[in-house]
Amino acid sequence: MHRRHFLGTSLLAGLATQAFGATKEEDSFDFAFLTDIHVQPELGAPEGFRQCLRAVNTLATPADFVLTGGDLIFDALDVGMDRIREQWKVFDECSKELALPVHHTIGNHDVVGWSAKSLVKPTNQDYGKKLFAERFGLARTYRSFDHKGWHFIILDSIGQNKETLDYEGWIDDAQLDWLKKDLAATGRTKPIVMVTHIPFYSTWHQVVGGPDLHLDGKAIVRNLHTFRKLFDAYNIQLVLSGHGHVVERIEIGKVTYLQGGAVCGMWWKGPVFGKPEGFGTVTCRRDGTWSWKYRDYGWKARK
What we know:
The chain has a single domain, classed as Metallo-dependent phosphatases (Purple Acid Phosphatase, chain A, domain 2). 26% of the residues lie in helices and 22% in strands. It is built from six helices and 13 strands. It has helices at 3-27, 45-57, 81-95, 130-135, 173-186, 204-209; strands spanning 28-34, 65-68, 102-103, 143-147, 150-154, 158-160, 167-169, 192-196, 236-241, 247-252, 255-260, 278-285, 290-296. Helix 2 (45-57) runs parallel beside helix 3 (81-95). Mean pLDDT is 92; it is low at 1-25.
């Protein structure tokens, strides 16, 4: 074959392959959702977390990135700073196992001292959310990003009751103002995934405790009713949450509210209502549709 013809043919073939590959790649992508990890030194939690991360790394359909749903460590609410730093050290060491980019959501157990039982005083420099934000290089604990035609919004749903000093589910005014601007900039057609640690809706409390059980501000985001209608004007497909350690799916209008189980199960003591320790994967498609799967990564609780 003439050299010029060979090079030209090869170039066209290469461009065709690249174009086909790009189209196929952009048709869909997967991400993993890991919530309620609750890392601690005890009960084999470090080994369990590493086992989960290895399962994420070796998914048959590779994930593009990982979203966490909060409660990364077992507890920063009721313990002293030495214990808090110990848990974060374990989390950091285990996280080296992960081979993917990760975007973290703050959970109530990641906040230092927001509890009436706290051993850390409000005057302590690490009290509140500062430690979490600094660890992950965040200017603030809520943010958004775009990926392959989809928009992702990570919320901070942890407020503080000023009377009891306990945490509660709450989206503050500054964050709501930011959210309105972020949604307006995103537009009405781009599909959106939102992440909140404390769920917007949940029924499992009533399933367990009875249909007339009253939910307090620690179970759900207490001021949701003041901004939920904001969602109607936008293409919000999925709201992911954690907190309850259960797998729960609620569909209201065009939005699906999905609580994603727990990496730690019942705080590393076994399954939750028969649901094993696990994580979720979400497939997002170019047409704005998505699908979800909860995955048991094979952990067995230690005695």
